[in-house]
Fold:
Amino acid sequence: SALHLTGANTARPRQPAVGEKVEPLDFQFRNETTSNTTQVLSTPRRRGRTPGRSNVGLASLLLCVQHTHSAHMLMSAWLNTAMHARAHQNISRSEPARGRGLLLCSSRAPGRTGGDPSASTRKAVETMAPLAEPSSAPQKQGQSRPFYPGGTIEGFKAGSPLTLYPQGLSCKKQVVILRHGSSEWNEQGRIQGNSNESELTSTGVSQAQRCRDAISRIPFDKCFTSPITRARQTADIVWDGRQGELVELEDLQEVHLGFLQGMRNVDANVKHKELFKVWREDPSHFEIDGHMPIPELWSRAEDVWKQILDHEGDSFLVVSHKSLSRAMLCIALGLGPEFFRCVDINNGGLTTIRVNELGQPMVLSMNQHVHMSVDGVYY
Structure:
């Protein structure tokens, strides 16, 4: 069957102005073989993103359905995506959608026989609701139960031979890693490294405030931060109003990049072309000023994990930098320095990792940053 995507908002939009109200996207799926129309309403548009970029998965689904005989397979796949998206929205079961949620509906062509094609979709949507019910298990004050369950089952190993804390922990712990907000050198396209000459811009301050709101419902025992100004400024904003301790860790500093620090990337690519190429394409073998920054970063990140997990408490916030955050994440995934550029961390990006009593890590989320462009998102 031939399946087409139509809608008033499918054209490439202009960049919305600051404070401008942005209408949600309206999509329709039309199956020409059956003349059925399925409409997905009120899909939130992420500020500064085009429908083409924010719906890459949707485009892929269209290709998958091209040679099928039914559009319902598409609806099933889209529903899985919708369930994941809803996990990031603070939507109450009893609250009407009001343009924030997802409404799936279908209309059948006149004269056609058979059951309502939307019945299975409605049933699937209804099964989503019970997951949002509050848990009877005791929780810390301010803690909200996630929309979907996940992670290890109590009493079992994580299934990974990797351990971040070989001697074992008294309880499982959760670590949320936050990259600092946008800095002056970020916006100028300069190589920062562990230089302390770049501070948060007004955009970076706003990003830090959005992060503070997004994680406001997560109870933390302590916050660990890099002492470098741009990270410490972010930590001060995010931790404002919290009762726990704010701890500076020297090892949370960004990677040291020698004489390249302070140079614009475009200039470094001209003046030190071969060296810069190694840094971009083969960072694990990059050498500058007589040292290997990335292997050294890995060693330091392993020590950071031990230092953090050694503290009392079971929920920690870590405010650091892009490279150090990458290293901590890769180590939790069992990846070495050669995988340095296999993951990315945005300014304000949040990564959540749970470590069980055996010291085994489980990555719950990576580089979440929808809160940077969508209001009312809580984790």
Strands lie at 3-6, 25-31, 36-43, 103-107, 173-179, 222-225, 245-248, 315-320, 350-355, 361-368.
